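Read as chain and fold; for instance:
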Amino acid sequence: MNRRGAVRTLLYIAGGTLVLPACFRQSGAPSIALQKLSVSEAEEQLLAELAETLFPTTDTPGGKELLLHLFVLKMVDDCHGPEDQRAFSDGLSAFIQWSHGKLGHSFTLAAPNEQVALVEAIQTRADDDIAKFYAMFKQRAIQGYLNSQYVMTNLVKYELIPGRYNGYFPVEKD
């Protein structure tokens, strides 16, 4: 055995022992830094699935790919008052329990048609924590979708104000 091969093998083993624990560890923390909200990693995944249910992936990117759930979390954390933030957190907790009771398992493990049926059932609910949470989430998810880079560059054609000049526009006399 030559010395270079032994050193190379030793470096591979040392690098693997440093990287391997990071592969199996779940942090439990959300992907973005939030100042006022506290959201776990599982709740963030649930919000990602909810965004994907609202905006499914077709020939355009879906809610998960556009990271709408992170947009919603950041907007609720930064732009809403303490009452709305508390209603969002309480509604999220109530939604997790309600969906688990309805489906028998987590919302993230449900089939897409079950997720759609559950979201449709939320829309018929009265004014409670889940309905407030869903209304806030839906409003911010729509805002995030319409302001996403994909929509603003590929779907919306931007024209500078006052718009293009049409020299042949018919002018009528009054």
